[in-house]
Structures are given as C-alpha cells and as structure tokens.
Specification:
Blueprint lengths: L1 H12 L4 E7 L13 E2 L3 H8 L24 E8 L11 E6 L7 H10 L6 E6 L4 E6 L1 H4 L7 H8 L19 H22 L10 E7 L1 H9 L4 H24 L4 E8 L36 H27 L3 H4 L1 H12 L1
Parallel strand pairs: 2-4, 3-7, 3-8, 5-7
Antiparallel strand pairs: 1-4, 1-8, 5-6
Helix pairs in contact: 5-6, 6-7, 6-8, 7-8
Amino acid sequence: TAKRRNHVWTCCVNVVYDQLTVLRSPQYVTFREGQWPLAGEKVPDLVALTMGFSVQEDLDWPGLAAGSLFQRPRATALIAVRGVGSLDLPSNTSSYPLENPVPFTLDSVANTIHTLFAESTPVVLQLAPSEERLYMMGMANTVFEDLPVTLQQIRARLSQEGSVLHSLPLHSLSRNSEADLLFLSEVQVLHDISALLQRHKHLAKDQAPDLFSLELAGLEEIARRYGNDSPQFQDATKILASVLQKFADDVYGVYGNNAVVEVVTVKTFEAPLTRKSRSILESKQISNPGSPYNLAYKYNFEYAVIFNIVLWLMIMLALAVIVIAYNLWNMDPGYDSIIYRMTNQKIRMD
C-alpha cells in the first residue's frame, strides 16, 4: 500500500500541463499572478481583449485585468509550440495552465483588424512552416516579401550566409536529419521575421495594430523521432527557449515597449469536437416568431450599446419636452409674445 501511495504521489507531481506564457507585455496590459486555467478555445478571445477589441462572449478568466481605455498594444505576437507542455522560460514571465488545447486560429482577430483599420496599413502575418500555411494582409506583403515560407525556401536559406546554423550550438542536432532540419527551419523563420521587423521600424509607428501568429511543429517531430528523453529533444528545447526569448525582446523593442508576446506550449492538440459546448442562443426557436415558448428575438453583442443610445436619447427628449411645456405654460402673452404685443398696439391706434 505504501509503495502504491508513493507511486500515485510521484505521478501526480510529474504531471506537466500545457501552458500559456506571456513573455512581454506593456505596463497598461496587466496579467495577474496565479494559476487560473484557460480553455484552449478561448485563446483567440484573450488575444482580442489584449489588443483592445471586443468579443462576442465575455471571457470569464481572472488572469487578465481590465486595461486602459486610451491605450492599446501596437502589436501582438502569438507563437504556438507543439510537442512540449512547457519550456524553460525566464521566471519573471506570467504562465497559466491551458485546458482542452484544441487547434485554434486568429482569423477572427485578423478580420477585426481588417474591418476597423481598412484605411490604414496593418501588418498581419499567420504562418505555419511545417504545413506551408501562410496568410498575409496589409503591409505584410511588403515587409515579408523576402521571407522564406516554404520548406524548400527555408532549407535553402539555411545554407546561406548568416543562417542560424552558424550561430546556434547544435550539439546533438544533425544537419542531415529531416526532423532536425524542420526544427532548425522554424528557428530560422523566427530569426528572419525579427530581422525584417528591425529593417522596417517605421511601420511600428502606424496607428493600426499588427498581428503575428506562428505555429511551430519541429519540436513535435524531434520528440516523435528521438523521444522526449533524448539529448536531441533536450538540446532543441533549450535552443527554442532562448530563441523565443530573443524574438520577444526584439519585437518588444521594435514597437517601443508596446507589444504583447505570448507563447502557447502544447504537448498534443486534442480533437476540436471532444468538448463542444452548445449555447441556448443557438436554439432555432429564439428567432422563430411563432415559438410557443414566447422567447425573445436573438440579438448580437452590440445590443447593450444600442440600448444605451436609445435610452439616453429618449430621456433627453423627454426632459426637453417638459422644459418647453413648462415655459409655455408660464408665459405672459401680453409681455412675452410678439403676436399679442403687436395686436394691442394696433387696437390702441384704432
């Protein structure tokens, strides 16, 4: 029994949860210290709120404090790392456990930026090198015109001068392994994005916020090839942790300490349908005028704004009618009205 208790205690201690880590954030974006879990499907809502945008459903998560109404970050960078639950990042960062890590995208945030800042020049970049998935919007097509995005282009970049192969301590990693090359290719992409942003610092002064979303799967391939306890995996995690910290510092510096850099570390993504919640607002009877339950019509998240506008406008009109009626009731026709005054003078002349 004692051995079984010790075994169970050891298993409980060694559990490593997936994490959301905030590497950099401005002073007006406050993340509270604590171990509040965040649902994986709520990561896009968290990114939207940190950028000062509204979301359709309130985020009931105490880790993010209320931000400033007059300041918003000029850029947000989110890096999703697959294959590891946590990285050895600096202790002064804010980390939170991640629950139900389903695959997510920042398409909703990118659409919000495109809608609100259509006349400006935002930089939106979403990239997954392992899947060769790329989305650019705004000035990103100009800034990252020379960025290698396909695996063939990135591997060709590794053989050029100034690549990470000449600056990183590879140790047990090999240049001839496909899994190692995929990992090093993603590290090279982070290095090139940082270098291109340093070259186009003038875009950081634009009023439109920028968005960067990267998904890295090289560490997952190394774990699948060598195992989690292999020296290759250990060396790769150390390299990635230092590269991510440098990338966060570079982005934070380019945008004048007005950028949020977050890292999501996920061992494996779960199927997106394993935990699907159904809201009562999805009921067909809500928008059905012939519903026998007398339910209200469906409304969107702008209802509160419209309600306040209509309410205070009605109050102002009602007060205006009361003031006008009061003054008309107490008016002296012979003194205040020009009509009666002219009539009296005409009678006297006659």
